[in-house]
Amino acid sequence: MNISIPSILLSLGGKCLLNWALVFLQRKHIWRSFVGVFSVSLAIVDTALTLIFTTIHFHIGGHLFLLDLQLTRYHICLVVQILGQVYSALQWPVVVIASFDYFYTIFLQPAASKAKWIGRSFVTILLWCLASFYIFLLSEFVPVLEDVSHHQIHQCWVFHTTQILQVVTLLSLTLSCAALHAVCTTPSIQNPQLKDQITDQSKTHSRRSVVCQVLHIFLNTWALLLIFLAVLLLLPVGIPSYLGLNVAWLCFLNSFVIAVVLCVVCPTLQLAQGLAAVPPDSFCEWKFKFNLAAEDRT
Predict the structure, then answer these.
(1) How far apart are CA 265 and CA 113, in angstroms?
(2) For residue 130, which phi and psi values (nearest 5 degrees)?
(3) How much is the pLDDT for 41?
(4) Mean pLDDT across the stretch 157-181?
(5) Other Cβ atoms closer than 10 A to 92
(6) DSSP 158-213
(7) What are phi and psi of 26, to 5 degrees?
(8) Cα 241 to the center of its chain, rounded Å
(9) What angle, rounded to 10 degrees, do the helices at 194-234 and 286-297 form?
């Protein structure tokens, strides 16, 4: 679809303000997870590109020289399209890396150290580089530019993103299967000893309690956004690719991945005994769930 350059600049400016507002909201624990570190990098990239685009657009004549390279409105459209493709390519890797990060946090409960956020920063930089190399060298991406003078360019062709709906669909199916499995699981009766049967039944009820509380806490926080995404899935409405990756989406994804990891892996005993660490989340109070699970098991 074609979007005017002023509209692109306004939407990017609003995205930058939202990004930094959410980063500031999570400032106390922003470095304690991969998603937090990646959110900071995303806010920096968006802000830098928005300032460059705005300078080019409002410069006299619509062009600017930088290191003997003439930057024009062509470059705004070109970089917006490339940026959208890079953002789309980053969606699934962020989900996978965040899942491993939370699995490591929940089960191993590593001590806080400076090396951890340095490692997450390195992974974040590497991920940006790999995504960029993929778009330039391996993908079949072809930019769409008007064959007119840069003085006459007032709109840019922008691609839609479908990765958001793919991610939400897969995570929702995984979460639903985990909840269904927890509800339908019956305690084992093959052990002849009554004590073992009671233990198995207690574990089953504890697992159900954990899954139910995870779903309850997550839906109480993000139900409206899930309804909005469901409407987008049913209606032929596209999300511009350069807006597809933002800190608000990462905050939702952070809670979603935590919920999926807890429901699928569900370390019931560790949670009940307080032996599992809780990944940082500024929107969902997962600690309340663990207290309830411990009381239910007791």
Answers:
(1) 25
(2) -65, -40
(3) 96
(4) 81
(5) 13
(6) --EE-HHHHHHHHHHHHHHHHHHHHHH---------HHHHHHHHHHHHHHHHHHHH
(7) -100, 20
(8) 14
(9) 150
